[in-house]
């Protein structure tokens, strides 16, 4: 059905995911170790370098295809890579000053350093209006204090992008993003969290205790946090949508394998019409969700808040529904940890939580209706 010509690198990633990642993902899920060897191999494949290389024909479409293909077998590894791109490389490339780009951009591309973006806070989550982390301008720069929770890649990050309320010397308040080396005095990354799924993705909180920053550490050198945060979130949401499609596709593949087994009663599960209908619906929905994602890329809607929200919401719902259908179809077999189906059920859930929760996305989608003028009933 898919007749488009794929970039050679996308083909190589597909082969690597099928031949190698499928065999190691369960180990990392059990051990919760950071997959250093595998993420370094992805950097060596130059996925991010090609994405940002001028004149290269490796597009955002191709990059998201690699995320999807990685996540068909090892969703946690896909999380590490997409976090590096959307939460570190992308904001530095898009908004960074010349000095910030010189210091962090290329090193982030090749994996010499890891980065993270810290928005989420205890209790209030990612609500900007309720954000408690505050950066107060001083004659020499900024002093930032606050607490961030559940930050992807934080335990391995060398550079932290911290979202904060800012209070300028003249008393005005706004939002900003700060670029901070993890070894800066007053910065403390907490213990690694234990999670339900995507267990190889390192996650931790970050505490900032009166951290002294120079003026040059404000992302882009300007106070433009609302725009910067919005762009970072949308970039991440598109990648999570691709991840969700990979999880759905991986679960479907494993379900198809199970229902194709010969059984002693002489009839395979796939020979039953009810099974065919369930799996046909999943396949159709995967293609529809991929088409929605690709439409946004083709129309350059990557920073259209509503479209991106609809894309991620559709894909994450599909990942969760697909994995639930497959584990129900496979019964006790799918529930056991000696196969990948139960892992995909656990990994799928995060797609409706990070990159903004599904309810937060629904609020974004509904916002224009709320802002309409009231209509007087005739």
UniProtKB/TrEMBL annotation:
Keyword annotations of the record = FAD, Flavoprotein, Oxidoreductase
Q: Which InterPro entries match?
A: Acyl-CoA_Oxase/DH_mid-dom, Acyl-CoA_Oxase/DH_mid-dom_sf, AcylCo_DH-like_C, AcylCo_DH/oxidase_C, AcylCoA_DH/ox_N, AcylCoA_DH/ox_N_sf, AcylCoA_DH/oxidase_NM_dom_sf
The answer to whether UniProt assigns keyword Flavoprotein to this entry is yes
Q: Which SUPFAM superfamilies match?
A: Acyl-CoA dehydrogenase C-terminal domain-like, Acyl-CoA dehydrogenase NM domain-like
Domain of life from the UniProt record: Bacteria
Q: Does the keyword Flavoprotein apply?
A: yes
Extract the Gene3D superfamilies matched here. Answer: Acyl-CoA dehydrogenase/oxidase, N-terminal domain (1.10.540.10), Butyryl-CoA Dehydrogenase, subunit A, domain 2 (2.40.110.10), Butyryl-CoA Dehydrogenase, subunit A, domain 3 (1.20.140.10)
Q: A GO molecular-function term, please?
A: acyl-CoA dehydrogenase activity
User: Cofactors per UniProt?
Assistant: FAD
- Family to which this protein belongs: Belongs to the acyl-CoA dehydrogenase family.
What the entry lists under PANTHER family is as follows: ACYL-COA DEHYDROGENASE, ISOVALERYL-COA DEHYDROGENASE, MITOCHONDRIAL-RELATED
The name under which this protein is listed is Uncharacterized protein
């Amino acid at each position: 059905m898919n007749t488009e010509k794929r970039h050679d690198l996308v083909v190589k990633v597909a082969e690597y995911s099928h031949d190698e990642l499928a065999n190691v993902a369960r180990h990392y899920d059990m051990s919760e170790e950071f997959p250093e060897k595998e993420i370094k191999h992805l950097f060596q494949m130059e996925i991010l370098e090609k994405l940002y290389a001028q004149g290269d024909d490796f597009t955002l479409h191709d990059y998201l295809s690699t995320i999807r293909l990685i996540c068909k077998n090892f969703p946690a590894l896909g999380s590490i890579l997409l976090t590096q791109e959307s939460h570190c490389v992308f904001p530095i490339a898009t908004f960074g000053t010349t000095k910030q780009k010189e210091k962090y951009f290329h090193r982030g591309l090749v994996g010499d350093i890891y980065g993270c973006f810290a928005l989420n806070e205890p209790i209030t989550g990612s609500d900007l209006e309720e954000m408690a982390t505050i950066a107060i301008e001083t004659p020499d720069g900024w002093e930032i204090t606050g607490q961030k929770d559940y930050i992807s890649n934080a335990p391995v990050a060398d550079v932290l992008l911290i979202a904060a309320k800012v209070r300028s010397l003249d008393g005005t308040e706004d939002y900003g993003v700060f670029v901070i080396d993890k070894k800066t005095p007053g910065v403390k990354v907490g213990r690694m969290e234990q999670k339900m799924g995507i267990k190889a993705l390192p996650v931790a909180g970050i505490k900032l205790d009166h951290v002294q920053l120079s003026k040059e550490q404000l992302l882009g050198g300007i106070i433009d946090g609302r725009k910067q945060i919005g762009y970072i979130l949308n970039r991440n949401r598109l990648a999570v949508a691709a991840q969700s499609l990979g999880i759905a596709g991986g679960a479907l593949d494993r379900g198809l394998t199970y229902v194709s087994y010969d059984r002693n009663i002489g009839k395979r599960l796939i020979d039953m019409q009810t099974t065919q209908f369930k799996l046909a619906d999943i396949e159709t929905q995967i293609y529809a969700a991929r088409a929605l994602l690709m439409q946004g890329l083709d129309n350059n809607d990557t920073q259209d808040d509503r479209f991106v929200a609809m894309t991620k919401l559709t894909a994450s719902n599909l990942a969760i529904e697909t994995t639930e259908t497959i584990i129900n179809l496979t019964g006790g077999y799918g529930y056991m940890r000696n196969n990948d189906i139960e892992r995909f059920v656990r990994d799928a859930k995060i797609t409706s939580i990070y990159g903004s929760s599904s309810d937060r996305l629904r609020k974004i989608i509904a916002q224009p209706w709320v802002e309409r003028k009231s209509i007087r009933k005739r």
